[in-house]
Amino acid sequence: MRYQFKFDKILSLKEREKDEVQVIYQDSVKKFEDAADRLYHLLKKKEDIETFQLDRLLNGLPVQEIRHHQQFIGNLEKSIAHYQKVVMNARNIMNYQQLQLTEKNMEVKKYEKIKEKDHLQFLADEKYEESRMMDEISIQQYMNREIR
Questions:
Q1: 41-80, pLDDT tens digit by residue?
Q2: Which residues contact 72 (CB under 8 A, 6 or more apart)?
Q3: Which of 8, 52, 98, 140 has the greatest number of C-beta atoms within 10 Å?
Q4: How far, rounded to the nearest angstrom, does the alpha carbon of residue 105 sit from its chain's CA centroid?
Q5: Does the pTM of the predicted model rise above 0.85?
Q6: 3-state SS of 68-105?
Q7: What is the rounded radius of gyration, in angstroms, for the C-alpha atoms of the chain?
Q8: What is the widest separation between alpha-carbon atoms in the chain?
């Protein structure tokens, strides 16, 4: 007799759901990495401009150029503040998706464990049935020998 797990369709459904959540999680990780990368580049750009401005100040710098640099740094700070919020949101989404993925993994593991136990029980039942049949055959052979 062939083994058939009674919750096979549910297990395959749970695996499919887990795969879908995994794709969503990977997408959220990518978005987080992109936002964090953009924030890093903006912070690096601000640092480079401040260093450049400091070097220029030591050598003398016209007031108009100082204003230009300050306005540029102000705009960068606005962009940095925006991307800090974007990174925070992306991190929160990524963490939420990670929890969802963990839950789906646990569900799949539960069904796999049930399947494993059910299969072991099936094998034990099959072995018991085979043993019972062998005993019955032995008894019939013994009885046939006694009759002759």
A1: 999 999 999 898 888 888 887 888 888 888 999 999 999 9
A2: 49
A3: 98
A4: 9
A5: no
A6: HHHHHHHHHHHHHHHHHHHHHHHHHHHHHHHHHHHHHH
A7: 35
A8: 125
